[in-house]
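Teaching assistant's notes for section 4

Start the section by putting this record on the projector. Ask students to predict, before seeing the second block, whether Nucleoside hydrolase will look compact or extended. Collect guesses on the board.
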Amino acid sequence: KRKIIIDCDPGHDDAIAILLAAGNPNIDLVAITTVAGNAELDKTTLNALKVCEIAGIRNVPVAQGAGQPLVRKRETAADIHGDSGMDGPVLPQPALSPVPDHAVDLIIRKLLESDGDITLVPVGPLTNIAMAMRREPAILPKIQEIVLMGGGSFGNWTPAAEFNIFVDAEAAKVVFESGVPITMMGLDVTHQALATPEVSGRIADIDNPVAGFVSELLIFFRKTYQDVFGFEDPPVHDVCSVAYCIDPSIFQCRKLHVDVETKGEFTYGMTVVDMLGVTGKEPNVNVALGLDHAKFWDLLCEALQNYAHL
Ligand code: BDR
Ligand code: CA
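Reveal the predicted structure now:
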């Protein structure tokens, strides 16, 4: 089993990423940590707990992390995810609560206690991960890999910058320059992970409450992606990171050098991907550029079927 920690800001696609991880037999979900991003921290934490509750995820610690980016003022994405960060499905207040540890402390402790076999899966702004690296550099050789959702060769928050990187580009810079092996699920690949009507129909046909919840998430996400971007089908970005941890063969990747822009007037928060090797710098990131759509959705549908007992 592959051990992962999901650091997230649920978030429709974050929620589905958690459900894929918990529903797949080859993943050992060590912890869920939360960060401000799609919504304020109290909301993303509440949403993570709601996801755990509906999916019967009882033994995974949920720890609350950073409520503010390292340097910038906080920005949220209510136009895409609604005011709650996970608008659409109506879920009861969860009985579960977060563990008392700060997410940064939990990440550090889990890594230090490990045999170097934990993969970090950050699918929100990188604040918690950067803070953990600065607070305890001894974690660096303990991180097996970071499979993050963020960046790409174009933006969705500005023309140049993707949301997760833009919200805390200083944190992203710390992570990208850490020397830890990174796989980047940027917009180039996540915009291929489209929830088509055919896929949504398959999920709607799965008869359990978790699949029903995902169907409702996708209905809301489809509408905002149509309203804001004019997309026909919504891309489930964060699910790509978990899918990669389960089966990397779904993705086509290239090892390239990536820098994070933190100064540009028009390009703040951009991941500058050296596609042609013009910098001569060593590749530091495994950049995902393509995916097998059928295999990707099969993986998610199988995981959702595994909630049949609920
Ligand atoms: C990323 O931003 C968030 O809105 C999504 O959850 C995803 O992590 C896509 O740019
Ligand atoms: Ca996210």
